[in-house]
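Quick illustration, no need to memorize.
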Amino acid sequence: MRSTITLLAALLLTPSVALHAGEGNNVLPTASMGTFTNPILAGDYADPSMVKVGEDFYLTHTSFRYAPGLMIWRSRDLVHWTPVTRALQQYDGDVWAPDIVYFKNRFYIYYPSLSKTHGTVSIHVISADRIEGPWSQPVDLKIDKDKRLIDPGHVVGTDGKRYLHLSNGHVIELTEDGLAVAGSARKVYDGWPIPPDWRVEGFCLESPKLLHRDGWYHLFSAQGGTGGPSTSHMVVEARSRTPMGPWENSPLNPVVHTDSRLEKWWSRGHGTVFEATPGSWWMVYHGYDRENLALGRQTLMEPISWTPEGWARVPAGVNPARPIHTPPLASAPLPPLERSDEFAGPRLGIQWQFWDEFDPERIKFSSHALVMAGKGTSPADCGPLACMAGDDAYEVTLEVEVEDGVQAGLILFYNPQFYAGVGITKECLWAGERGQLKKNRPMKSSHRMFLRIVNDHGDVDFLAGPTLDSLTKIYNSISVRGYTHQTLGGFLSLRPALYCAGKGQAIFRQFRYRQLE
């Protein structure tokens, strides 16, 4: 009898049993199919948007002020992801919260961008016949810019008409080709009334993601704010018989929410719900790891069940911080993003992005080396070349060679005001933090040096030496735990980056990224 009770208790803690208890036509894998642990994409992969085409799943996310932007990932099992391309091959301002769509054999990505020149928000669309591209040039949909609407969510009506839902409960009809609007944006949804005693950043109705199921259009929105208190963000659901409303809020809201700062994942929200296989429903969304806010908002996934009344919910017993049964898909390990780089050329590796510009003319490749032209006077204004960090502890190592008049090196970059790292000129080593690199010690008859940064859960060391075997610490150990949105704003993350400032050029070789325990 005890073994029966123990088995029943164990089963009740699994998502599969919760789904089999009369909550709809969901099918989740059994324990024999294995488990995964969040995040499914580690690093600052905020605002995820998902589409399934055949047996492939494609995902993209916010680019911020980095370019090229709109990385597209592919997976067959929703756990292993490989990068495919960067769809936005130009700088288009501050790019947020895209929506990736497949309609009539063509891919579309709708995204908002903030112009740093004019301070205006625009909704753009790019499209392609193949996921690998080539992707079109951005088309400005010219949607009521005075309303500053963001976060597009595409949906097709049963009559074949196309609509774009936007922040603050707005919707606008699109033309048949999806490349222009057919009218003005109208407000059709007021959001879910957040209880007044909840600790949130604000109302912040955004991130509309839609699906059609059993005669209902389901609208999943983010509310509460994404970067304030740990309990701010959430995903709420509403439904309607038409894409235009009227919308009825779910009695189960919120579908996803961080209830306490004691939880591992904070500010959970911005969700896309999708069907992986018939009856197996899931949500991808983002959240901060409370132990490492500097990594930014990471992509998480949870199963979704449907109640007999037709509302979405997370099955009882599912905890995003604990192992979750994998989707009922064949395991398909794919090559992950490779952060290390031999600079073999002829093009920039997919892991790299420029800050606040896209200027591939600044770089060229020569004998397994990246040659970069200098710009500006420091990491603050030279357009650093960054890659995404994905671990709580890691080290990055690089060989740097400089010409006269150039300072170049290796930094951890948050924004132009806050970065930390080590660099060289022909005359001396430089090192520092909080956006201040200062002369550290004279160079000894060399303009070439190996540099290393060790980030051990936010505690950072800088090392330099003429060879890899002679690396020594050259600056005080520092903490970068405060290099976060919660402290500095901007919704950004701390990223390893190369920089080259001044007039002349620097040569970079053997970039190594290594995860530490």
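Residues 204 and 223 are 5 Å apart (CA to CA).
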